[in-house]
Design goal:
five-stranded mixed β-sheet; 9 helices; Ubiquitin-like protease family profile domain-containing protein; 7 strands; alpha/beta
Length: 234
């Protein structure tokens, strides 16, 4: 636990920041971390998130599903006002929904403001079970993305998506699955960061005609990924 905490401190210290306001925020974070009990639990968007999950942001470590979910909520909130002309609202599906085998508990997440709607009326619906999924309602397309580009994972996610979400569609709506084949992960710990960046790029590129402009780069700059990891943590 202490090693993960120290890695987080080292990670925050090494981030290059050229904005005075953000530098003040970093110093506040560095002052706060040593005083946190490693067994502490924080509340965010109705979830209890352990400090050790947050400590996973410290460099070469995986991000938990909950960290990716909370980061997705943040980037969607930031990006929606930046979309072309009228904002295109995006619903982020809580990953807890996909982990519930109990039907009664799962139904608690249906038709609620912050989770999944039975009518699927949002322009974009994103979720993160193992990799990224985006329901693109305007064109009736489901985009899927695995940072490792593993067909086995993409096929499994498509099967799970079809079984869980498609029953909420109207009977005449047929969704076509497509795989995003760029941004291949080159390390063993950036999958969550890449997935959140994928969500962000699609939200920002939403145009008035409901089309999506996809980035076509095989991989992202490692330095940029490190900075994005810090931004999601801060």
């Amino acid at each position: 636990k202490l090693i993960k905490t120290q890695k987080l401190v080292n990670f925050v210290e090494k981030i290059v920041i050229d904005d005075d306001h953000k530098e003040v925020e970093r110093q506040r974070i560095l002052h706060m971390i040593p005083s946190i009990n490693v067994d502490s639990v924080f509340s965010a968007n109705g979830h209890n998130i352990p400090f050790l999950d947050l400590a996973g942001y410290g460099g070469d470590q995986w991000l938990s599903d909950l960290c990716v979910f909370l980061a997705s909520l943040r980037v969607v909130k930031e990006a929606e006002p930046q979309t072309w002309q009228n904002p295109k609202y995006v619903t982020v599906v809580d990953p807890l929904y996909l982990q519930l085998s109990d039907v009664e508990r799962r139904n608690q997440y249906i038709n609620t403001k912050d989770h999944i709607s039975t009518e699927m009326r949002s322009n974009r619906i994103v979720c993160y079970p193992t990799c990224g999924i985006i329901f693109y309602m305007g064109r009736k397309i489901v985009w899927k993305y695995d940072p490792f580009h593993k067909k086995l994972i993409l096929d499994a996610v498509q099967e799970a998506t079809s079984g869980v979400f498609m029953k909420f569609m109207t009977s005449h709506m047929e969704m076509q699955f497509r795989a995003f084949t760029e941004w291949r992960q080159c390390d063993g710990h950036s999958c969550g960061v890449l997935t959140v960046q994928w969500y962000l790029s699609l939200v920002r590129s939403t145009l008035s005609d409901a089309s999506i402009l996809l980035a076509y780069d095989d991989k992202q700059d490692p330095k940029q990924l490190v900075f994005e990891r810090y931004k999601h943590f801060s």
